[in-house]
Design goal:
The protein has about 180 residues and is α+β, with helices and mostly antiparallel strands. The chain contains 5 helices and 8 strands, in the order βααββββββααβα. A 5-stranded antiparallel sheet has the order 1-2-3-4-8, with helices on one face. Strands 5-6-7 form a 3-stranded antiparallel sheet, covered by helices on one side. Strand 2 and strand 3 form a beta hairpin. Helix 1 packs antiparallel against helix 2 and helix 2 packs antiparallel against helix 5. The longest helix is centred in the first third of the chain and has 24 residues. The N and C termini lie far apart (about 55 Å).
């Protein structure tokens, strides 16, 4: 069985920033561990790891996936599955914002807006143009038709408990461990 075609958009600048944050956190933790300063590692390791985790959640994780069935918007703390039939409008002036048939609005963190004069002239982001083009293609094939059942055109929102728990635990460690050591 062939896998469906998936087109993915991510911010290159955000991914580079995430790599810097995660890499710097890793270097500091390894440096403290190799240096043998266990007290310093225990005291500040949680805070350093929190910086790396923020890089992963906020800058590395976000993505916009276009599939045959619809769009998958991966934001830092949740993922939204949007069938093509639920899309009412695509706004690309400030990145990608999907306006759904039920009035809900979904922003894709992963898609950067056009810069400077392009935005002032009303030019949309590259990702928004691709979403709109794919949406029109899906409409032409009939896959973006709205079903007669009302619930079939709604987006499915799934929170990401791993990202939330990771940041919460590391934030707790960053606050508590300096006082315990």
């Amino acid at each position: 069985m062939a896998s469906p075609y998936v087109q993915t958009y991510r911010s290159t600048v955000a991914r580079r920033l995430a790599a810097v944050l995660m890499g710097a956190a890793g270097v500091v933790v390894v440096g403290l561990a190799v240096g043998g300063d266990v007290e310093l590692l225990l005291r500040w390791g949680g805070a350093v790891l929190l910086v790396g985790a923020v890089g992963w959640v906020v800058y590395w994780r976000p993505a916009l996936h276009l599939t045959d069935d619809g769009l998958q918007v991966v934001n830092p703390f949740r993922t939204v599955e949007v069938p093509w039939g639920a899309v009412e409008e695509v706004d690309g002036r400030y990145g990608v914002r999907l306006v759904l048939a039920d009035g809900q609005k979904v922003d894709a963190w992963a898609c950067p807006p056009p810069l400077g004069m392009d935005r002032a002239r009303g030019k949309e982001s590259e990702a928004a143009g691709a979403v709109r083009e794919r949406w029109r293609r899906e409409q032409a094939t009939g896959r973006a038709d709205r079903p007669t059942t009302p619930g079939d055109t709604s987006a499915v929102v799934r929170p990401d408990p791993v990202a939330v728990a990771t940041l919460a635990l590391l934030a707790l460690a960053a606050v508590v461990t300096p006082f315990l050591v």
